[in-house]
């Protein structure tokens, strides 16, 4: 079973633990504030949410 299949069965806590141990699993940039989070870079999403 591949990681993609395993992730679908993980709890949020298990997925967070996995990502904290292997940063390559997180799409960058990951931007977070008190009310929202975005990952990856898209000019429109960036301008709409962060400027």
UniProtKB/TrEMBL annotation:
<dbReference type="GO" id="GO:0008794">
    <property type="term" value="F:arsenate reductase (glutaredoxin) activity"/>
</dbReference>
<keyword id="KW-0560">Oxidoreductase</keyword>
<dbReference type="InterPro" id="IPR036249">
    <property type="entry name" value="Thioredoxin-like_sf"/>
</dbReference>
<dbReference type="Pfam" id="PF03960">
    <property type="entry name" value="ArsC"/>
</dbReference>
<protein>
    <submittedName>
        <fullName>Arsenate reductase (Glutaredoxin)</fullName>
        <ecNumber>1.20.4.1</ecNumber>
    </submittedName>
</protein>
<dbReference type="InterPro" id="IPR006660">
    <property type="entry name" value="Arsenate_reductase-like"/>
</dbReference>
<comment type="similarity">
    <text>Belongs to the ArsC family.</text>
</comment>
């Amino acid at each position: 079973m591949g990681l993609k299949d395993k992730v679908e069965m993980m709890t949020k806590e298990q997925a967070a633990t996995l990502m904290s141990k292997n940063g390559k699993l997180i799409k960058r940039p990951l931007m977070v504030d008190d009310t929202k989070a975005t990952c990856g870079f898209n000019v429109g999403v960036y301008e709409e949410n962060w400027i």
